[in-house]
Amino acid sequence: TAILNVKNISKTYGTKGANAYTAIRNLSFTMEKGEFIGIMGPSGSGKTTLLNTIATLDPVTEGEIIIGGTSLSAMNEEQLSDFRSQQLGFIFQDFNLLENMSVFENIALPLSLRNTAVPRISATVQQASTLLGISGILEKFPAEISGGQKQRTAIARALVHNPALLLADEPTGALDSTNAAILMETLSDLNKEQKVSVLMVTHDPLSASYCSRLLFIKDGEIDQELHASNSREQF
Ligand code: ADP
Ligand code: ADP
């Protein structure tokens, strides 16, 4: 079954006329549950715009996005905000951890924001941190841990509420090649073993090699699409 339907979307910034810029043009694709899709393309081709529209952060100008059967265009701001915090997980290049919170508190954030009961938060954070190999640093603060550990903390936080779809924008961008490879192994394991659906924007060929499908964007359109020979495999 499809986790994501992107149907003929266009995104124009600015008002129509001389200032208008169309970053995405009539773009469509479907993502099945459990896929690991990489979005590649030159700078300015529209990758971040595409990810932001799917992330419900930016409305499309035309077309429709359906996530897990729900159309984003049918929701108001408040419903979108709830949908985002319940159905989506986010990983960013710069981790976006809160410096004055411990690793535990950072991971727990999506649950505490929803008033989850404390014992349940504790158990879920333990489980996510064990999965990511960071259960030993839960009391530390972001300033006290490595870049790789920060990104693993960010992934644990992105997954702790069991999102239907994990969205990642250049997740290895701030990591050295060793930590980048560890991160991609981790995402790949989560995809294969926990069946997490991952949509990732990347410039990095190494990161792209872990995807089951690659969409190449050029001038706001899908220019080329590559499938790993077997959908269970990576490139
Ligand atoms: P990429 O992520 O592939 O580098 P972006 O989606 O960031 O591409 O940008 C695509 C195009 O849209 C670029 O030309 C960019 O300058 C333009 N753009 C992106 N965001 C905005 C915005 N908020 N207002 C106007 N133009 C924008
Ligand atoms: P990336 O790391 O993907 O290259 P950018 O640096 O292109 O991201 O964009 C960073 C932010 O600035 C994004 O939120 C994007 O929407 C916004 N942005 C990009 N280009 C423009 C533009 N021409 N006008 C206004 N905002 C822009």
Strands ordered across the widest β-sheet: 6-7-8-3-9-10
Strand content: 25-35%
- The radius of gyration computed from the alpha-carbon positions, rounded to a whole number of angstroms, is 18 Å
**Please, what is the oligomeric state?**
single chain
Q: Shape, please?
A: globular
Helicity range: 25-40%
Q: Segments where pLDDT lies below 50 for 5+ residues?
A: none
Count of beta strands: 10
**Structural class estimated from helices and strands:** alpha/beta
* Overall average residue pLDDT: 92
Question: From N to C, what is the helix and strand string?
Answer: EEEHEEHEHHHEHEHEE
What's the number of helices? 7
Distance between the termini: 23 Å
Largest sheet composition: 6 strands, mixed
Bound molecules: adenosine-5'-diphosphate
Keywords: ATP-binding, Nucleotide-binding, Transport
InterPro entries: AAA+_ATPase (IPR003593), ABC_transporter-like_ATP-bd (IPR003439), MacB-like_ATP-bd (IPR017911), P-loop_NTPase (IPR027417)
Pfam families: ABC_tran (PF00005)
Family: Belongs to the ABC transporter superfamily.
Explain how this protein is built.
- GO terms for molecular function: ATP binding; ATP hydrolysis activity; transmembrane transporter activity.
- Keywords: ATP-binding, Nucleotide-binding, Transport.
- This is ABC transporter ATP-binding protein YxdL.
- Residues 4-235 form the ABC transporter domain.
- Pfam families: ABC_tran.
- The protein is α/β, with parallel strands linked by helices and 235 residues long.
- 33% of the residues lie in helices and 27% in strands.
- It has 7 helices and 10 strands.
- It has helices spanning 47-54, 77-87, 103-112, 118-131, 147-159, 177-193, 205-208; strands at residues 2-13, 21-32, 36-40, 62-67, 70-71, 88-92, 165-169, 198-201, 213-218, 221-227.
- It has a 6-stranded mixed beta sheet, sandwiched between helices. It has a 4-stranded antiparallel beta sheet with strand order 2-1-4-5, with helices on one face.
- A hairpin with a 2-residue loop joins strand 4 and strand 5 (70-71).
- Helix 4 crosses helix 5 (147-159).
- It is globular and about 55 Å long.
- The chain binds adenosine-5'-diphosphate (2 copies).
- Residues 13, 21, 23, 41, 43-49 line the site of one adenosine-5'-diphosphate.
